[in-house]
Design a protein that fits this description.
Layout (H helix, E strand, L loop, with lengths): L1 E4 L3 E7 L4 E7 H4 L1 H7 L7 E10 L5 E12 L15 H6 L1 H7 L1 H23 L3 E2 L5 E2 L11 E4 L4 E5 L4 H9 L4 E9 L11 E10 L3 H20 L3 E4 L2 E4 L5 E4 H9 L9 H10 L10 H12 L8 E4 L11 E2 L2 E5 L1 E6 L2 E8 L4 H16 L10 H8 L5 E7 H9 L21
Parallel strand pairs: 3-5, 6-10, 14-15
Antiparallel strand pairs: 1-2, 2-3, 4-5, 7-9, 8-9, 10-11, 11-20, 12-13, 15-18, 16-17, 18-19, 19-20
Helix pairs in contact: 5-7, 5-13, 8-10, 9-10, 11-12
This protein binds one RNA strand of 76 nucleotides through strand 1, strand 2, strand 3, helix 3 and helix 10.
Length: about 425
RNA sequence: GCGCCUUUAGCUCAGCUGGUAGAGCAACGGACUUUUAAUCCGCAGGUCCUGGGUUCGAGCCCCAGAGGGCGCACCA
């Protein structure tokens, strides 16, 4: 609440999560004692009132207070009522204070909620079942990332916080659930930036009898629908330019984007020496362990990725960098995979799932070999997952969307910390 | 991990060539019966992020450290 004291009259702005209303408090109405108590109220106190609706002379809809009750006292001084709270560190550490004071902060988290609710409605309407899978993993698979490591005392075993939802959800496709999704936290033990927080929220879905093309269509539908339902518009700001998400999104192969950018046609089947030379010309230090697929990915990241302002599905990732994706039915060196880029940022990733247990084992073994050679992000052989595939997984399309980044886009936030209620920070020093 | 920037009252910020710390709002005391962050008068409020150093004297200069921001790296 915020008070304007006028002697024998008080004007108080009372605010809750939905709106604000003015209170009109007259000394002659509530009596001297009650009035004196009211004048001791402070900015931020929680107040309950009863009274009649009235309009003041200036036309402000108000509650003419007959009874008021202090519900809770704000003992700590509120931030400045005009300038608000702008110190980013305090806004992130003391989100409660930020939310009390900054309407824009409340707006961002309202949008975040509406986006997630919209996703759930869309998926529900298309027959997807929401599930929950383990956060504590015996092996951290489904993505290339360094995991957080923890320990279970009673079982005396090492456990990893999940880096992806993928492998458990596909076990459920094997189990015949056909359309499943999970919206959940994943953890990656890596750097922090305006686009990265160690824990973040992913939505992953798997659709039996689908493929990467159908899943791209679904990704587009999910995000455009969420934009409309959460913000009332399909327009977003990308690097200062207004872009309409409703315009159909381009689909283009990674190797074609590299050719656009460099003027040189590339393909994972080309001689490694040729690709390594091209990469070096673009300032890439080529690691001796990289195959042609990894070099192509690096070329894409350096020459093309940052230019992808408008929503773009980049497709056809090399097999080498896509251990869980099915090989392209028309090109044995590429996969039926895509990543969605908006404003130069990756928002989503998906593919036609690899469902051949023999080929999957071979891919896992390559991952394991890379890990043994010192690649900390490489995967391992997940025997239970292979056993699941041996029971038979139907052709399946899979999709993962970074919910925080979608929220950044739709809420027009500049940092991922602005769309997470409690971003990861170093611990605060409270003295001793 | 590297670079740049930043840290002064509860909040938002000033603080000159090094001379002993300020404003507005909030708080506190008082006046006011139709105000819209913003009436008027008065009063109080400080580990100038921390620790060293230079100096007669440091918020300011130097060194080291801490928190935060941004960029790079990392993040398929």
């Amino acid at each position: 609440m915020l008070m304007r004291d006028q002697g024998k009259l008080l004007f108080i702005t009372l605010q809750d999560r939905t709106d604000a209303i003015q209170l009109f408090v007259s000394k002659s109405v509530i009596g001297d004692n009650a009035f004196d108590t009211m004048t001791t109220l402070d900015l931020g106190d929680w107040l309950g009132v009863t009274g009649n609706i009235m309009t003041t002379r200036k036309g402000e809809l108000s509650v003419k207070v007959s009874v008021a009750q202090l519900l809770a006292k704000a003992v700590r001084p509120m931030p400045d009522k005009w300038h608000g709270l702008t110190d980013t560190e305090v806004r992130y550490r003391q989100r409660y204070a930020d939310l009390i004071v900054n309407e824009d902060s409340r707006r961002v988290f309202a949008i975040r909620h509406e986006i997630i609710a919209s996703f759930r409605r869309t998926l529900h309407s298309q027959g997807f079942i929401e599930v929950e899978t383990p956060v504590l993993h015996v092996e951290a698979g489904g993505a290339h990332a360094r995991p957080f490591v923890t320990h279970h005392n009673a079982l005396d075993m090492t456990l990893y916080l999940r880096i992806a939802l993928e492998l458990h959800l596909k076990r459920l496709i094997v189990g015949g659930m056909e359309r499943v999704y999970e919206i959940g936290r994943v953890f990656r033990n890596e750097g922090i930036s305006t686009r990265h927080n160690p824990e973040f929220t992913m939505m992953e879905l798997y659709q039996a009898f689908g493929d990467y093309s159908e899943v791209m269509t679904l990704a587009e539908h999910l995000i455009v629908t969420a934009a409309t339902e959460a913000t009332g518009s399909t327009w977003v700001d990308i690097d200062g330019v207004e872009v309409d998400l409703a315009k159909p999104w381009r689909r283009v192969r990674m190797i074609d984007l590299i050719e656009e950018a460099t003027g040189v046609a590339v393909h994972p089947s080309h001689p490694r020496e040729k690709l390594a030379t091209l990469a070096a010309q673009h300032g890439i230090t080529v690691d001796s362990r990289w195959g042609t697929g990894k070099i192509i990915e690096e070329l894409f990241e350096v020459t093309a990725e940052a230019k992808l302002r408008e929503p773009t599905f980049v497709t056809g990732h090399p097999v080498e960098i896509s251990p869980l994706a099915r090989v392209d039915r028309n090109d044995p060196f590429l996969t039926e995979r895509f990543e969605l880029f908006v404003g130069g940022r990756e928002l989503a990733n998906g593919y036609s799932e690899l469902n051949d247990p023999i080929e999957q084992r071979a891919r896992f073994q390559e991952e394991q070999a890379a890990k043994d050679a010192g690649n900390l992000e490489a995967g391992t052989v997940d025997e239970d997952y292979l056993r699941a595939l041996e029971y038979g997984m139907p052709p399946t399309g899979g999709l993962g969307i970074g919910m925080d980044r979608v929220t950044m886009l739709l809420a027009r936030a500049q940092s991922v910390r602005d769309v997470m209620l409690f971003p990861t920070l170093r611990p605060e020093d409270f003295g001793s």
